[in-house]
């Protein structure tokens, strides 16, 4: 999709220093859970662009992105000030490592990577498939959605930032499945090591590095 101006439907807090933004879906926008969009916003007269992964299970009427708010950031604080009815410029979707109806989705998420992870897990369960989520963060977000996933039968493990991943990843992958990894580089390294310790080929994982 070429860049176009889209209307914000809602902005809400989803935990410490994090918001979810619902954006009205334009025609012919066929994004899948795990793909990402480019958002451009005018800040002090200059265009600033950032990439955000879709965190909703579908894009039928609206799609959601999850944004971590760094008070000193150039873009995120301005996104936190958005209100329903405002517009943002969106291009995409982009990315090839997304959910494709796999019978079991194993999501390993660090920090803001939980956004796409919960979206994929919700979609998998809605499709009648299985899901497992291992999430590492000192200040967890989307806790209501994680609780709902667990109540619906998904495996969910929420770890502190200092907790090791090995045991939780071994439990999450015990029944097989397609592995997805979302997070910053250090988390990706730790998740890869945990997969190898569990005897899972990390080369088969679908990975998005947040930087």
Describe this protein with a few key phrases.
37% strand, six-stranded antiparallel sheet, alpha/beta, 22% helix, 211 residues, globular, five-stranded parallel sheet, single chain
Task: Summarize the structure in short.
The protein is an alpha/beta fold and 211 residues long.
Multimer state:
single chain
Helix content: 10-25%
User: Quick check: average pLDDT?
Assistant: 96
| Alpha-carbon distance between the two ends | 24 Å
Structural class: alpha/beta
- Give the strand content: 35-45%
Task: Explain this structure.
It is a single chain. This protein has 211 residues and is of the alpha/beta class. It contains five helices and eleven strands. The protein has helices at residues 76-80, 114-126, 143-151, 166-172, 185-197; strands at 4-15, 18-24, 36-43, 46-53, 62-68, 87-94, 104-110, 130-136, 155-159, 178-183, 206-209. A six-stranded antiparallel beta sheet has the order 4-3-6-1-2-5. Strands 9-8-7-10-11 form a five-stranded parallel beta sheet, with helices on both faces. Helix 4 (166-172) packs across helix 5. The longest helix is centred in the middle third of the chain and has 13 residues, at 114-126. It is globular. The model has no long low-confidence stretch (mean pLDDT 96).
């Amino acid at each position: 999709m070429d860049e176009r101006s889209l209307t914000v439907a809602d902005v809400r807090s989803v935990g410490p220093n994090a918001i979810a933004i619902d954006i009205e879906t334009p025609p012919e926008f066929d994004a899948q859970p795990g793909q990402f969009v480019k958002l451009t916003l005018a800040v002090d007269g200059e265009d600033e662009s950032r990439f955000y992964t879709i965190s909703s299970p579908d894009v039928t009427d609206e799609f959601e992105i999850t944004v971590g708010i760094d008070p000193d950031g150039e873009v995120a604080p301005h996104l936190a000030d958005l209100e329903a009815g405002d517009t943002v410029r969106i291009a995409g979707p982009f990315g090839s490592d997304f959910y494709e109806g796999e019978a079991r989705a194993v999501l390993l998420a660090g920090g803001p990577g939980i956004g796409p992870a919960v979206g994929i897990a919700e979609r998998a369960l809605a499709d009648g498939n299985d899901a497992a989520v291992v999430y590492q963060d000192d200040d967890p977000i989307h806790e209501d959605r994680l609780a709902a996933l667990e109540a619906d039968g998904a495996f969910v493990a929420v770890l502190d930032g200092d907790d090791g991943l090995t045991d939780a990843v071994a439990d999450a992958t015990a029944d097989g499945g397609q592995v997805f990894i979302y997070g910053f580089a250090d988390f990706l390294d730790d998740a890869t090591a945990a997969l190898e310790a569990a005897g899972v080929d990390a080369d088969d994982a679908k990975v998005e590095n947040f930087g």
